[in-house]
């Protein structure tokens, strides 16, 4: 028997369950189509178990996203007029297909490419006007505290030269970061050289103003999974009753799904001989790519994967960690801004193909993902995680005095 829509309005806190559930989505521009495909599959599995009204926000204690992943996070957690998620996961892919060509308009022909190159030397490649207007239209005046699940979105404040982590856990303690969700999404998406930095300010109830000068969260954490875990751990350490009696060092209680946007590692498009000759311009422009951006985003993503994997293995909880990443992108596939119809449709295909690939983990010696289990593909792993998420939700509902008992079966 399927549960009713009413029973899926709010996930009960971890104090009534066995695990803490985390979903993390990397940054990567138009390559956000890849995790969108993965998320649609996961949500469809949850709907098979709990009914067509099930949404990802109904199952995760915290959803984290950087850059394009931050936008996906907002789409999954921002409320619509019925106080349900603004987007179903299956609709995110079509959102990218429709809007990416307008966010990243393509200059065709030799003259068009030359103009694009000249513009990139003088300022950002794109003016972001369409992106900003689109985000503000979709998210409206939604504030950070309005999200339907706890949300963590990393950004980097270029004035302070330090990461600024927007965490809905912190909003109740410090009202000033309770910014509009649209401003946070625009800030975390402001990739250096591609899109302009974003300024906004907030004012708390005491009248204190805080200014933000934000660029892409990938500078700090392109893979935000570890940031999300750290935010939860801080809540446990601060004795947040939602997590009692879980201990601050009880990392074995986490269930983490981390989804990447792909990388071109196998292509090996850079080497030391090339880089040895680069000056400032070379690091910022090489063969249509920005090596410096590639380096800092991919480095942080792999280090996070390696760290979480090692910790979960040490705690004998490796079955509760799933990293899905494609590292065989080549040519235009690996671009963050090539938004031609051909390339976008290819990214859809890559996302579907990734579901059929073996469950893998990064090897820091080779830099490549290696299968960790024989015969288990990512789709099978997601089905297993969907069952765990559904079971955890049911357990919390059965234990919580705040749950709607009449809607359970």
Automatic annotation (TrEMBL):
Any GO BP: lipid catabolic process
The entry's keywords: Hydrolase, Lipid degradation, Lipid metabolism
Span(s) of short sequence motif GXSXG: 65-69
Domain PNPLA: 23-229
Molecular function terms, GO-annotated: monoacylglycerol lipase activity; phospholipase activity
Active site: 67, 216
Domain statement: The nitrogen atoms of the two glycine residues in the GGXR motif define the oxyanion hole, and stabilize the oxyanion that forms during the nucleophilic attack by the catalytic serine during substrate cleavage.
Protein name per its UniProtKB record: Patatin
Organism: Rhodamnia argentea
Gene: LOC115751579
